[in-house]
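User: Sequence in, structure out. Go.
Assistant: Echoing your sequence, followed by the structure tokens.
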Amino acid sequence: MVFNIYSFLRTLLSFVYCVVTFIARVWKSFRKNYLELLYKSNYVKNELEFISRESRLLRKTPCHVVVILGNESISFKDLANLTIWCIAARIPFISFYDHSGLLKKKQTELLRILADVNKGYTENIIWGKKSLTNGMTNKNGTKNGIAPQRIHVNIYSHADGKGSIVDVTNNLCQSALAGEFSSNQVTQDLLDKMLQAELGVPDPELGICCGPSFCTFGVLPWQIRVTEFLQLPTHHNVNVRDFVDLLRIYSRCEQRLGK
């Protein structure tokens, strides 16, 4: 009799969980479709103006956003949109992390799509020092005599995460063997400076994990000590309101930095 009660409770809890999950999925789908219809109306006439206006109302915005693609296939158009939206939100750094390394191999495709999405902004995109496209769009464009917002775009793979730490460690060992400094001079501050020099960007403040798995996939392990991670169900067909919602959530986060 006891066994049957436990079995019934397990079945009941499983049923309730499935119902709640289904309702949450339906609500999320309804909300997204509703917002898309609202966006297509006259309520938001220009998505870049909308982002610019909403970002000014936030208590804080990130300086560096890293988008983690996870196991999703790459949507170049959506990555290009995220880049342009960061420009509108005055976010100076955006990085894309694809642990498989496929995005690094096809990063020229991202550049091409960026040019198609908004030619007026590509002149203000600065590609990272490790990008194959570095130097192709490093221009100081102006509009009506005013220098517009510029953004630094970096593309990372698994090799730039743990691989960078290995490279820095090897350099430290070789320098120590060469007598340039002793082992007791190696500190966390020194490692921080060397890794910052290796990557050439500030630590990310907002990490966006794309896909059903809320996982970092090994992204820049030394640089994410104070990163606020949020989940995006998918970066495919991401809309401007999804992006602004993430910025709003980040703005409300109180980072205690271990205190």
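User: And one key feature?
Assistant: Residues 2-40 form the longest helix (39 residues).
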